[in-house]
């Protein structure tokens, strides 16, 4: 067994319904076979387990590994394309790059960069938007398995308005999706997610095929985009003859507790009611919404209807892999004056980046209590760096957490574990 000695911050209970930040200075986490089997003040844990190895993480802070509920694997190399709205950005930045993943050697390089970028940002679990090419999705699953990350992913499908090279048919989408799910769903830490790109690029028969696959692959997830941009929404309304974007998915059984919808910047009340009733999740992607000028996320309305919300980076429209940055941008957006704002506290940001995502993905992770796997990140700023100075001068735990969100970057994430095994750290980095 190993005792990890650290200042630990986590949010086991939902702060949107009264849960508090749990902050423990000089805690001892007793880990056996990757699972946390004891927790308390370090001195007490040590006294009960005198012979056990101690790993000293007292410099800095330990947080749960982050859970990213919306991130595109083929878009790592196009992060940072600014000055475009959604449909122009897709056309000019994302889709030309996504076509390149038809080459499995190219896709293998991207997959490696992608999983390393997740780990480097302290992300240990993710719902990953895959590629339009089945072999590329396969290499992503392989790269995630090699590193040890908890990845839920699937083949992205489209048969409507999109670049021709990325189109498929409903039958082929079903067959290739089923083959990938047979190979990967439930293998190690991998799970399958049925993933039509968005209703704008899909016909109704394609969404029907997605519904069939989702119901045929037991325990599969469903993910897509929803209500992101006004032009997108009006095109979907015209294509489907429906004013309710969610209905394009719902009529095929695709709205349930294992469904995650990215963005939802412009929902109707009816859509929010249906999502709340079904226990679906919205992946809020604040840097992407800002970068593409999508609009301000109506957090207050999601809360009012009881819709579950987690965080997504939406790389590559989002500006990086760090859920610290997403949390901060979520906070900034809700600080703008107006009736609709929903002020967020540091405990909300940590919950959105961890436990909320775990709930969306039905994973027993997200906090560092007894019975959880040791999925954790050690944030250890360089001595004398601004974050180091500010953390040492924090007023209290909540203030320290605010500082982590304000100033923390992947450069401050020193080591990351999944189930007690390092997936990022000095030795792994120097190994290549
Ligand atoms: N809608 C359809 N595809 C995409 C994508 O790749 N990124 C974002 N942000 N929205 C989308
Ligand atoms: Zn997206």
Account of the 3D structure:
- This protein has 432 residues and is α/β, with parallel strands linked by helices.
- The chain folds into 2 domains: 2-64 and 368-431, Urease, subunit C, domain 1; 66-360, Metal-dependent hydrolases (TIM Barrel).
- 40% of the residues lie in helices and 22% in strands.
- The chain contains 17 helices and 17 strands.
- It has helices at residues 42-48, 86-100, 104-120, 134-147, 170-184, 204-216, 230-240, 245-250, 269-278, 286-291, 299-305, 323-335, 346-353, 355-360, 386-392, 397-407, 426-430, and strands at 2-10, 22-32, 35-41, 53-56, 61-64, 66-72, 123-129, 150-154, 156-157, 191-196, 221-226, 259-263, 281-284, 308-311, 376-379, 413-418, 421-424.
- The strands form 3 sheets. Strands 6, 7, 8, 9, 10, 11, 12, 13 and 14 form a 9-stranded parallel β-sheet that branches. It has a 4-stranded mixed β-sheet with strand order 3-2-1-4. Strands 5-15-16-17 form a 4-stranded antiparallel β-sheet.
- Strand 7 (123-129), helix 4 (134-147) and strand 8 form a beta-alpha-beta unit.
- Helix 12 packs across helix 16.
- The radius of gyration is 21 Å and the shape is globular.
- The model has no long low-confidence stretch (mean pLDDT 97).
- The site of guanine has 11 residues, from helix 2.
